[in-house]
Backbone:
């Protein structure tokens, strides 16, 4: 589904409910910064409004819509766990990712707000990853990244995808039954 389209969000949730009867866990991981923002040479005020809108639609409005629709159903039923995904850019934005960072800061705020709104039956928490060596890193200058990581990230490297799984499993499982509204940073110490 395209999280920017409310009708597609409602249809996907309806399909899941029809097939499974309920949703126990929502992992809100749709998002992106991609080449629409990363590496652009324009100053922020020169970015086309379409680029800014795309970033806000995918990274902020999409998770907001999906969380609202699914969370409402969870709260009316047996409860559940909603896992948001933000970014350390939300707390330490670079000049080249302002729309993305602003959207992810909104995700942090939504996490706390929705945690209060859907309590006590629904837990809403957020993983705040730092730089991970996923598909997006294929566009990075890895020599430059590794040089910067050696001095700016205490663990001196980017994260590997399996290193984020434990955080998601924690929030999805009953191990986090007394955790809601939490922002868990998984970033090798970057930003401290």
Residues:
């Amino acid at each position: 589904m395209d999280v920017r389209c409310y009708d597609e969000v409602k249809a996907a949730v309806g399909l899941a409910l029809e097939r499974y009867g309920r949703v126990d866990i929502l992992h809100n991981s749709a998002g992106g910064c991609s080449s629409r923002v990363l590496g652009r040479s324009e100053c922020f005020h020169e970015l086309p409004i379409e680029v800014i809108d795309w970033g806000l639609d995918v990274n902020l409005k999409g998770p907001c819509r999906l969380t609202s629709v699914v969370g409402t159903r969870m709260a009316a039923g047996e409860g559940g766990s909603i896992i948001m995904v933000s970014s350390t850019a939300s707390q330490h934005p670079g000049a080249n990712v302002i729309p993305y960072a602003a959207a992810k800061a909104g995700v942090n705020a939504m996490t706390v707000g929705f945690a209060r709104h859907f309590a006590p039956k629904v837990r809403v928490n957020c993983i705040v990853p730092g730089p991970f060596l996923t598909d997006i890193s294929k566009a990075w200058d890895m020599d430059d990244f590794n040089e910067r990581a050696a001095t700016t990230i205490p663990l001196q490297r980017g994260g590997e995808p399996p290193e984020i799984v434990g955080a998601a499993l924690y929030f999805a499982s009953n191990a986090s039954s007394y955790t809601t509204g939490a922002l868990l940073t998984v970033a090798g110490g970057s930003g401290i």
